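User: I'm new to structure prediction. If I give you an amino acid sequence, what do you actually give back? Let's try with this one:
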Amino acid sequence: MEFNQALYRRRRRSNLVGLSLSMGSMVLGLAVLLWILVVLFTNGLAALDWNMFTQSTPAPGTEGGGLANAIVGSLMMVGFSVLVSTPIGVLAGVYLAEYGDQSKTAELTRFVTDIMLSAPSIVLGLFVYAIAVATVGGFSGWAGSLALSLIAVPVVVRTTENMLRLVPGSLREAAFALGAPRWKVATLVTLRAARSGVMTGLLLAVARISGETAPLLFTALNNQFFSTDMSKPMANLPVVIFQFAMSPYDNWIRLAWGGALLITLAVLLLNIVARLYLREKNPV
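Assistant: Good question. You get back a string of structure tokens that encode the predicted 3D arrangement of the chain. For your 284 residues, that looks like this:
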């Protein structure tokens, strides 16, 4: 009995130590995150005004200006990336979940997808630079969209596959019993059942590529002027923030804080929407 009591007390102490370390790590992480958000909101809110959304980036040493060209450029490149990555990622995820159980092609696809998920974004940017910038001879918004698409596709693929695997097998069996062909079962039954999870993966992919800087430095570069020509260098918020934050001009630094706040709010909103959407609509 004494041995059992001693073992019980030792386990209680170990449990207390584990919980204390876990809570301490959580509090430390939340404190650092809160500190970052306080500094960002304090400096970013002071930079927000109407000119930021209506005027282009200013020339060196000048006052005023805004981020209209960078905002539009980011929206265009992210938008085209979503148009490219969504069908490719969803269809690849459907193939892996519904047809790739014993396929060598599926195994290779999963391997390549995992590599792309873990690869630094700057590596993907250099890859696109080598095939779409150096060969063509100029930076462009299309090259930036291609680089962002390579980052978003593996996220959509893995999320789609995981969500489809959560769909109960009895749902597929019922559809097969009614005589539905396999492609209809995959697209009209399982994919429809997992649509909320697939949408969540897409939103998370958009949130990830919205703040990528390194790939755009090698592909889209930047443009001081307002332009919607995707075949030319195009302004974008991440690169503008990167350049303005290191400048000696107070006006540029102020705009960099404002741009950082805009990206943070957009990413935060997308993550909140994704989590609420997934919570309200269970994919299975």
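You can read the tokens as a compact description of the fold. Here is one thing that stands out. The longest helix spans residues 2-47.
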